[in-house]
Each structure stands twice: as structure tokens, then as C-alpha cells.
Amino acid sequence: MSDIVIYEAENGAVSVRLDSETVWLSLQQMTELFARDKSVISRHLRNIFMEGELDREAVVAKNATTAADGKTYQVEHFNLDAILSVGYRVNSKQGTRFRQWATHLLKEHLTRGYTLSRERFEANARELEAALELVRKAARTPELAADSGRGLVEIVSRYTQTFLWLQRYDEGLLTEPAGSPGGLLPSLEQARSALTQLKNQLLARHEATDLFARERGDSLAALLGNLDQTVFGEPAYPTIEAKAAHLLYFMVKNHPFTDGNKRSGAFMFVDFLHRNGRLLNARGDPLINDTGLAALTLLVAESDPAQKEVLIRLIMNMLAPETSA
């Protein structure tokens, strides 16, 4: 269910639709917000989508709107990501002001809307965390000194934590972890070189054709540029976890290649983690094993664009450094 709130812009009041944990404006409303002609806003939106800065399907939704003639029309609305991208190009001051207002609004709305759900969830989570702590303590007892015993407990412990993430995912309460600042992305040349080596290996095993990882225009360059961009002077993706999760998502969903997008996405995801020393945890175990990587890549491929933010947070939590018990 959506709500309508009023934003007091410098050029007058703008009615903003609040729905699906974000805010939405139509093309006409963006012209009012940024005081630009509709043709100017339209041109910037086209460029944003053509350059791969945003995935159109993920940031655009049609909403029934009643016009002055009394008829109802399906009008395209653009979410906060698209609004801010346009604002960055046409009026950064107004864009910054709107971002601050929208962020405060969404925080209030989420806090108010999820209070009861969070209380119910946290009661379950506390029980699950308590059980997880018991398992961890058991792993340190002398009675389980054998490697097999410790290994069994470790598996139970890790999958209990995974279950906790998935429960939060199902409840819609999964939060973004603090993460590790930074994250070095490969250059375009490095990415192409790594993918060429992968392609040659697959060709040698007859597991790919010459179409594998063949770029569609400048899609790969635009994708890497998008991940490395700044918004209002701050990194758009400020942590290793954020970059890794979005890299996998964009590689799979934006189809930068003629063929092999899922395999290329999974490969570049692992390559990025390796470049940043995050492929293994503190014990030397892989953060995500081969089976998990395949399942995660397919989950991204089959996901609805509306699930993007929740899916991104799930991946980020899976990559977040472990906290000490």
C-alpha cells in the first residue's frame, strides 16, 4: 500500500508517492522538482539507462494516475535511485536536499511500519542466536577435541547463521552490514584479460563457444564505471561488500555479454573478492563454496527486479566479516 507525502521544493510543493521502501516521482514531477523542461529530464534518463548507470526495469514502475479529464492512465514513475541520478546531472543542490529529505522520510516510515514485525522477529532471533552461542561454546569443549566433532559443530554453526540471514530476508528485515570500506575494482583491461583467460579455458574443455563473454557495445566499461562512481562527493558503493554484491548483480542482470553472463558474473565476483583479500575467511575457508556460488548466481538471475535491494543486502551479509562470539 502506498502513501502520498508532500515535499516542499524551492519551486513549490511536489506530491511524492511512498511505496516499496522507496519514493517515486513521475517525469512531470521531476520537471517540477528540478525546474527543468521535460525534454531535459527525459534525455538524462535515457542516458542513465543507455550508459548502464541504472537498470531501467529495477527503477521504473507504472502506477495508475487519474488525469484532469477524469480518466485513469498508467504513468511511469521513477524511484529514488533514478531521481538522485537525474538530480546529480541537472541540479546537485536540489538533489542533495531531496536526498536528505527522502532518507529521513524513509527512515521514519520503516521504523513506524516495521515496529511490530521487528519485535516479533527479534524474539525469534534472540532464541536462534542463543542456540548458535551454545553450539559455538560446545565447539570449544575438550570433549569435542576430535577434528570430526569440531567439523560437525562448525557446519551446524555456519548453517544456523545462514538460516538467521534467510529468516531476516523472508521477514523483510535484513539490514545492510557495516562492511569494510573501500574495495579495488579491476580496470577494464584487467577484467577483459581475466575473462579472456576464462574463455580460453572453457573453449579448451568444449564448455563454451566463441560468443562467450563477447561484449555488447561498451556495456562492461559502463558497468565498471557505474560501480566506481561517486554521488554528491561520496562513493556510490562505499564498501567491499557493496561493490561485490552489486558487481554480481549487474553482471548477471544487465547482460553485458552476448553469452555467458551468469558464468562471467560469478567469475568476476570471485575475482573481485580475491583481489581484495576476501575470498577466504579468517580460518582460511572460502566465504562461499562452489555450490553456494552457483546457487547464489541463479538466485540473482531468477530474481524479480523489485527484490534487488533485499537480495543485495543478503549477499552483503554473507560476505560481511565475522564478529567474534
TrEMBL record:
Superkingdom per UniProt: Bacteria
Protein's UniProt name: Cytochrome c
Family matches, as InterPro entries: Fido, Fido-like_dom_sf, Type_II_TA_Toxin, Virulence_RhuM-like
Signal sequence interval, chain numbering: none
Transmembrane segments: none
Pfam families: Fic, Virulence_RhuM
Domain Fido: 190-317
Source organism: Sulfurimicrobium lacus
